[in-house]
Amino acid sequence: MAAALKFVCLLGLIVLVSIVGLERVDAAGECGKSSPDNEAIKLAPCAEAAQDQNAAVSASCCDQVRKIGRSPSCLCAVMLSNTAKASGIKPEIAITIPKRCNIANRPVGYKCGRIR
Predict the structure, then answer these.
(1) Which of 21, 39, 46, 87 is least surrounded by Cβ atoms within 10 Å, i.e. has the fewest?
(2) Where does the signal peptide begin and end (predicted)?
(3) pTM exceeds cut of 0.85
């Protein structure tokens, strides 16, 4: 009887963990179903411009910033992501890229965490 009870408890735990796991997969965050770290990889063309305010911003960088910047909260999450930090970007410089790309509908005066 004790073995059967353990089996039922274990089975219940597995079902619960599976349900929680499925909800996390379908949940939408700042960047929809994609993680900020995955979106940060798309900004690879911006690496130099995100480290040096005087560096030219490439057209491919601006294109990616336009796409991700449709959601300002996603763009902030990307700039503050672990991937962005590991790549050595400077958030206080990265936040200037939308302006340097002459993106008209950029969030003016938008803050990302403590950076502005």
Answers:
(1) 21
(2) 1-27
(3) no
